[in-house]
Amino acid sequence: MFEKRKTNPIAVAVALGATLMAGCTSATTSVSTTPAATAAPVQVAMNGTPTMASGVVAAGGENNPPLAALGPVPVPPDNPQSAAKVELGKMLFFEPAVGGDTSTPCSACHDPDQGWGWAEDISRGYPGTVHWRNSQTVVNSAYYPRLFWASSVSSLEAQAKSAAGGAVAGNAEFDIVEARLALMPEYRQRFNEVFGDEFPLYRNAFRAIAAFERAELVQRDAPIDNYFNGDKSALSEEQLRGMALFNGKANCIECHNGPMATDFSYYNIGVPTLERWKEDGLAQITYRYEMYAKGSNEEMYKNYKDDPGFYFRDKNSWNKGKFRTPSLRYTAYSAPYMHNGTLNSLEEVIDFYNAGGGHNMFSKNKSKLIKPLGLNDAEKEDLLAFLEAFSGEEIAIDRPKMPDYAPLFTKAELMMEKK
Length: 419
Ligand code: HEC
Ligand code: HEC
What we know:
The chain contains 15 helices and two strands. A two-stranded antiparallel ribbon has the order 1-2. It has helices spanning about 85-95, 105-110, 155-165, 175-180, 185-195, 200-215, 225-230, 235-245, 275-280, 280-295, 300-305, 310-315, 345-355, 375-390, 410-419, and strands spanning about 265, 325. The protein has one domain (about 1-419): Cytochrome c-like domain (Cytochrome Bc1 Complex, Chain D, domain 2). The radius of gyration is 22 Å and the shape is globular. It is mainly α. The protein binds heme C (2 copies).
């Protein structure tokens, strides 16, 4: 069996106030390609609109879209890519001024050295809080039609806004963010060049961040891509055996399918309750805050000790405890795993599935697709080797130099005003 993660006493905190995110920017549903995209076929993961899988056993593995190389990144027509926009977005991703007290840029919880996520069970939060969910890797998030573990937003632009503003994440007041950016001449110049802004507009900051994510936080040359693009030596014998298990006996393909290795659907697979919510006061406060903010009823608020997840999208009881099937890409770097980070390694994940998943407060909704697999040790090794093929080189980046503040007017100009 898998073992529970020991709680980490660090209790910084933040949470993405998913409450603040309604109707921000346009949905990213149409697909075009980046200038950098090659002529590879458009195998974009946008094929499946998220459906509400309710644990019904599907007809069988053969109906699933096969694993495949990742195609060019989808770009929404209202936020075209440009080199200058990407460069600006990269600066803003690391820019402390975008967070409430200037300590929570995106990179605070999506650290390039921690798989562009945060290597604790649940994420650090805004100072004085802990988040309530595991911080996902941002790598390849540009391919998701809906973002977050419970898929509450539908574009990277809206996602960035909800992250920057959420009470347990960035907790930013956007007027202040705009004032800060206005007082940095380099940003004034860059926003003007890219968006024509006289003074930087925060909504354009999020468009730039999204452009950066689409350009640089994408990986299309993992061993699995190389293999499906024709390099048959890209996968080892062990990995090929692992792939056969993935598509067969282990039946991972039932949910982790297509180029992104996800069906973009929602399941309760029995991820165990986070023990930390019982022990860590700050974590408990965030849990209660999120339950309240997302509209749980009084009975749930009083009695629940687990994350209802996708339930909050439509309040149907059969969706309690369901979460989006995550991509398996870049997971070699993004431990710990699952929406609450309760599994520490890919070995533990395999043991978890091999045992038929686990239990949580909403196990009534557990998918019938999750059942004991009967994999022996050699098979588990092969499957593990194959999971590693979803990750290529670690994406490292030179952190950009942050611009300095400067007074909006010189002393001389202010004196002129007085006259
Ligand atoms: C305080 C920590 C924190 C900060 C700051 C933060 N995030 Fe996150 N991020 C998280 C957590 C935790 C999640 C998962 C939340 C959930 O699913 O409810 C997440 C999820 C995401 C996702 C969704 C990935 C997916 O697979 O769906 C993206 C994209 C993302 N963040 C980008 C950003 C950007 C851009 C910023 C800066 C504007 C940012 N984040 C700031 C912690 C943070
Ligand atoms: C019934 C659908 C389903 C099947 C079958 C399935 N998964 Fe998953 N997988 C999910 C869902 C949903 C999650 C997220 C669950 C959560 O956080 O509560 C997940 C999470 C994961 C994660 C964690 C990723 C991360 O970023 O945290 C890994 C790794 C994984 N699955 C691998 C596998 C493997 C290997 C198999 C086959 C043995 C498999 N899955 C079978 C639906 C499925």
